[in-house]
């Protein structure tokens, strides 16, 4: 296991488990911790992890940004600069990861913490988990990609409900609103998240990265543009070793042995 004071990274085969580790503040992150999380995720991929599993230590997933340590409200006015330097790289570490990202949401995911939880490619929530956009309650607007994520997954009405009213959304309601992939009993959360991450890590990694690219294009572009992206991605997919292995395994009627190449 590698670790800093605020982030723990443990390799389990081809899966890297990244744990936000500030349980005394429900894993609320400082600007420095935001970069630590992003750096830990990126480093795990560079070290060969073929899937990431992100969760929080203690009673909650993440209570969002630690505004006191960020200096907000204490004369700090360059918020846009902070977003560019600290929070955008964190959001991109989730969405742009070239491997599947599974988030295991234990307890509260609030503010930017909710944005991070919902940025997983597969989102597994404990039954006791809840999601809350706390921003408007203190005079702020959503960040870390939360607006885009909720609006695209659940639509305008739910996005405004969360952002304007600032109330808690249960894990079950989040699942009904297409914000969460799966809800499980609390004691099954990590086992189920590991099962999903392990399955994803055994799949053709480069192809999964292309699929993520296609889905993002489908959300942002026209049908015609999406067709173009599909063709470009398929061209790249057929050049991978994993594609050749998949075809051979199918012909030989055996399970494929993908290497992520």
Characterization of the model:
The protein folds into two domains: 2-201, 2-enoyl-CoA Hydratase, Chain A, domain 1, CATH 3.90.226.10; 205-252. 48% of the residues lie in helices and 16% in strands. The chain has helices spanning 31-46, 67-70, 79-95, 112-118, 146-154, 156-165, 171-176, 189-201, 205-220, 223-237, 241-252, and strands at 2-3, 7-12, 15-20, 51-56, 101-105, 108-110, 122-126, 130-132, 169-170, 182-184. The strands form two sheets. The chain has a seven-stranded mixed sheet, with helices on both faces. Helix 5 (146-154) packs across helix 6 and helix 9 runs antiparallel to helix 10. The radius of gyration is 19 Å and the shape is globular.
List keywords for this structure.
261 residues, alpha/beta, 2-enoyl-CoA Hydratase, Chain A, domain 1, 2 domains, 7-stranded mixed β-sheet, 3-stranded mixed β-sheet, 10 strands, 48% helix, globular
């Amino acid at each position: 296991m590698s670790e800093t004071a605020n982030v723990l990274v443990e390799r389990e085969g081809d899966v890297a488990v990244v744990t936000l580790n500030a349980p005394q503040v429900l894993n609320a992150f400082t600007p420095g911790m935001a970069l630590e999380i992003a750096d830990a995720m990126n480093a795990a991929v560079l070290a060969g992890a073929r899937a990431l599993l992100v969760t929080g230590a203690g009673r909650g997933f993440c209570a969002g940004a630690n505004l006191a340590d960020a200096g907000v409200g204490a004369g700090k006015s360059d918020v846009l600069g902070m977003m560019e330097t600290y929070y955008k790289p964190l959001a991109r570490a989730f969405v742009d990861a070239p491997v599947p990202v599974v988030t295991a949401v234990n307890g509260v995911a609030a503010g930017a913490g909710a944005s991070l939880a919902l940025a997983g490619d597969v989102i597994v929530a404990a039954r006791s988990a809840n999601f809350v956009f706390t921003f408007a309650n203190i005079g702020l607007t959503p960040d870390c990609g939360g607006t885009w994520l909720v609006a695209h997954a659940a639509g305008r009405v739910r996005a405004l409900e969360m952002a304007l009213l600032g109330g808690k959304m249960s894990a079950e309601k989040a699942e009904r609103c297409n914000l969460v992939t799966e809800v499980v009993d609390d004691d099954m959360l990590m086992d189920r998240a590991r099962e999903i991450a392990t399955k994803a890590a055994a799949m053709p990694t480069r192809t999964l990265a292309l699929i993520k690219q296609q889905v993002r294009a489908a959300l942002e572009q026209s049908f015609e543009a999406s067709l173009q992206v599909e063709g470009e991605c398929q061209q790249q997919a057929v050049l991978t070793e994993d594609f050749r292995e998949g075809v051979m395994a199918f012909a030989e009627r055996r399970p494929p042995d993908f290497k992520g190449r």
